[in-house]
Amino acid sequence: MRDERSAVKDQQSAERNEQQLHIGFCGEEHVLRSGDRLDFGRAAALCVDDNPFLHRRVGRFRAADGGWWIDNLGSAIALELCDLDSTSRLTLAPGRSALIPFDDSVLRFSAGPSNYELEVSTEAADEEPITQTDPEASEPATITPASLRFTPDQRRCIVALAEPRLLDPGAAAGELPSNRQASLRLGWKLTRFNRKLDNVCGKLTKAGVAGLHGGPGGLASRRRDVLVELALTTQIITTADLELLPQTGVAVSR
After folding, report:
1. In angstroms, rounded to a whole number, what is the distance separating the alpha carbons of residues 6 and 19?
2. How far apart are CA 31 and CA 138, in angstroms?
3. Phi-psi region of 148 (alpha: psi -120 to 50; beta: other; left: phi over 0)
4. How many CB atoms lie within 10 A of CB 15?
5. Are 85 and 62 in contact (CB under 8 A)?
6. What is the 3-state secondary structure (H, E, C) of the chain?
7. Does residue 150 contact residue 127 with C-beta atoms inside 8 Å?
8. Which residues face 203 on adjacent strands?
9. Given the DSSP bridges, would you call strands 59-64 and 67-72 parallel, antiparallel or unpaired?
10. What local confidence, expressed as pLDDT, does residue 44 receive?
11. Are strands 59-64 and 37-41 parallel, antiparallel or unpaired?
């Protein structure tokens, strides 16, 4: 019995270690993998601001003991981690450390008159590395269902957008749900859906697909059209994937 419990614990720890931690701030994104760490502050790897009220190093994200941790390295600034899928929050006093308990959250802190927010989310690591495409290559990227691996939530994101086309192949290409409609369909908060959509588009962009790079002022509707058309024509998703969506009127619990 003890050996079985140890095996289960080791498996759970291994699964957590396979997760990546995504940190976003003002369009800048850092992806941490097992063994990585990232300091943030006035003079750190992630430079938040040159605000003199801000510590040189406010905090640190790091992997330890099979999970992702946050350390408050400052002496006078409290950190508040707010879950995007509920009203739960974690307050971290100076000098304290805590295991990050949320999949998608926002880290908030203040220094002098300024307030700051960092987006924090965990994402399952790719089962195999993405092949980078030479941007100067003349041949377009070749995408097949086997060429990229998506996490279950990333696939749900694509299917929620493509649902009208999967149900009716004759539907007009531009008649897609908005991000808000798709998030409600999945039972997610809009911020969570947007994060998953960014991850999907970022993965395909790295693989050489054009027209999916999002950013401030980007045309979200056009990005959705490109994504859905690509997913359907390459059969990244099919009608069989509709089972990934919750039954109408049933909220997703996760």
Report:
1. 21
2. 29
3. beta
4. 11
5. no
6. CHHHHHHHHHHHHHHHHCEEEEEEECCEEEEECCCCEEEEECCCCEECCCCCCCCCCCEEEEEECCEEEEEECCCCCCEEEEECCCCCEEEECCCCEEECCCCEEEEEEEECCEEEEEEEEEEECCCCCCCCCCCCCCCCCCCCCCCCCCCHHHHHHHHHHHHHHHHCCCCCCCCCCCHHHHHHHHCCCHHHHHHHHHHHHHHHHHCCCCCCCCCCCCCHHHHHHHHHHHHHHCCCCCHHHHHHCCCCCCCCCC
7. no
8. none
9. antiparallel
10. 94
11. antiparallel
Note whether 109 and 93 are within 8 A (CB): no
157-181 pLDDT per residue, tens: 999 999 999 998 877 666 789 888 9
166, 159 contact by CB (below 8 A): yes
| Structural tokens at position 138 | 């003349």
Q: Identify which of 84, 101, 197, 188 has the alpha carbon closest to the alpha carbon of residue 150.
A: 197
d(CA 245, CA 134): 35
Q: Which residues pair with 119 in a beta bridge?
A: 24, 106
- CA 183 – CA 85 distance, rounded (Å): 12
Which tokens sit at 241?
């994937």
**pTM of the model as a whole:** 0.56
The per-residue pLDDT for range 1-23, each reduced to its tens digit, is 455 444 444 444 444 446 788 88
- Asked whether 106 and 120 are in contact (CB, 8 A), the reply is yes
Tokens encoding 233:
């024509």
